[in-house]
Amino acid sequence: MRCILPILVVLLMVSCKEESKEITFTEVDYNGLEKVLNKQDNKTYVVNFWATWCAPCVKELPYFERINKQYKDKNVEVVLVSLDFPKHFDTKLKNFINEKQLQSELYALNDMDSNYWIPKVNKDWSGAIPATLIYNSNKREFFEQAFEYEELERTLNKFLK
User: I need a surface site. Which of 49, 96, 123, 154 has the fewest CB within 10 A?
Assistant: First the structure.
């Protein structure tokens, strides 16, 4: 019996691996997202429109995650809005988010009427992604482009002055 006890302890330790926390997103239509795009408080919001199938989007996601972490104490909130197809939310999108361990606030837009909501986000937006909206109570700018980290940080800092 004394020989079995250490073996059982080792087996329990190996089988009780800590599971990583599943990260979730909020599924919204444009009316739900519109509230996120027009908050009036003391924060600066960085809202990035992206999709798992968009290579430039995926490349720049770590930059937004870094901004989220480094500027959280400066009243900056990063919001990631996935434009993946709703039929892929529970598979591809969910797996991607958890695989990358994204920590920013996450939304999945399930509103397929892009002709309605794209001009409401920005009247000049062609609908191409990646695209980013940065705003606060004093300033609002839309960027239909991919960012490198330094450029994103410089752009954000213009809002924090």
Answer: 123
Give the separation between CA 109 and CA 105, rounded to whole angstroms: 13
Q: Nearest Cα to 95, choosing from 32, 25, 47?
A: 25
Write the burial class of residue 158 (CB in 10 Å: 0-12 exposed, 13-18 middle, 19+ buried): exposed
- pLDDT at residue 83, rounded to an integer: 97
Residues near 65 by beta carbon (within 8 Å), at least 6 away in sequence: 78, 102, 103, 104
Pairing of strands 131-135, 105-109: unpaired
Burial readout 91-125 (b: 16 or more C-beta within 10 A, e: otherwise): ebbbebbeeeebebbbbbbbeeeeeebbeebbeeb
Mapping DSSP onto H, E and C, the string for 109-134 reads ECCCCHHHHHHHHCCCCCCCCCEEEE
pTM of the model: 0.85
CA distances for 2 relative to 7, 8, 10, angstroms = 9, 10, 14
Helix (H, G, I), strand (E, B) or coil at 45: strand
- Find the distance separating the first CA and the last CA of the chain, reported in whole Å: 70
